[in-house]
Predict the 3D structure of the following.
Amino acid sequence: MKRSTRSRILALSTAAVLSLSLAACGSSNESDDDNGGGGGSESSLSGTLSGAGASSQDAAQQAWMAGFQEANPDVTVNYDPIGSGGGREQFLAGGSDFGGTDAYLDDEEVAKATERCGELIEIPAYVSPIAVVFNVEGVEELNLKPGTIAQIFDQKITKWDDPAIAEDNPDVELPDTAISPVNRSDESGTTENFVEYLSATAGDDWPHEVSGDWPVAGGEAAQGTSGVVQAVTNGTGTIGYADASQAGDLGTVNVGVGGEFVGYSPEAAAKVVEVSDRVEGRGEYDFAYDLARDTTEAGTYPIVLVSYAMACSTYEDEQTAELVQAYLAYMVSEEGQAAAAEAAGSAPLSDTLREQAEKAIEAISAG
C-alpha cells in the first residue's frame, strides 16, 4: 500500500481498526495519543463501499456498518444479503467491493477471483454455533452422541426413553414420549452445516447426502430459524436445530466429542476452526477451512456455521483499497466481533484466527 494510503488509515478513530493499521504499517514511532484511541483524532476516510452475500451475516453486518460509520461519518457501507451464491457471483463479476459467503470459493471461483483482483483474500469473519434444541417436559439438557442425534433426525429412534438416549443420561428422568423432529422447510446454510456434521460424525447412522435441503421426509418442517424455534417451542417432545442465538429457553444438547459431551459456547464454537485444516493449494491469504466436524479435541463444539469475507488483494484505486482494508479490519477486531456477538449471537474469533485474518487484511493495496 502507498504511503499516503497508510497514513490516512492511521487516522481512524476506532481503536481496533487503528491497532491493525499500525501493525500493518509498522509505525512504531507514532504514539497512541496521535492515533485517536481516545477519540481525539478524526477519520479522514470517505467514500462508498459496497458488499453483498450471505444472509447469515446480515445482523452482524448491520452492527459492523453502524460501528464503522459512526467512527467514519464520511463513509457509507452497503451490504446486500442476497445469499452466498449470489454474493460470490457478484464479487467475482466485479459488482461488489467485498462479499460474504457461507461456503468457501471452489477452485474455479478462485481462478476467476485471481483474474479480477490478484490474489484472493478469504477469511472467517462470522462463526455461529448451531444448537440442537428440544422441548421435553422436565428435561433442560441432554447428552447425545452423533449417531444418536442422527438416528433421531432420521426417525429411527422414536421415543425419548430409548436406551441409546438413556445410556448417556443416567441422571435424567426420560419420559415415554414420542420424538417429533423439526427441520427447515427452506434451503438453508444452517441445514447444510448440520447435515455436514451428521455425515462426518455419524457413519452409517446417517446415510444421506450433504445438501441445504433437508433429506428426510415425514417430519415437521418449518420456514426459517424462527419457524423451527417456534415449532419446537409449541410442540411436545420436539427437537430441531437452529442458530444458537435463537435457542431462548429451549433445552439444548451437549454433543459427543471424543470422550466428553460439549455444549455450545462462543469459545467452543470458534475452537473448531482452530483445530481444522486450511484447504490445500490455496493462496497465502486464503484462509478457507475444511472444518474438522469429527474432531476429538476437548472443549470443541463442532456444529457451527462459518461464514467468510471475500476481498481482493489489489484494487484499481487507492480509495477502495483503503476502505475495504479498514472495514474488514473493523469486522475482525475485538470491538467488531463483540458488536456482532451482541447483535447476532455469533462466536467472536479467537486470537489465533484474528491474527490470521489481520495478516490477510494487511496485504490489501492499490495496484
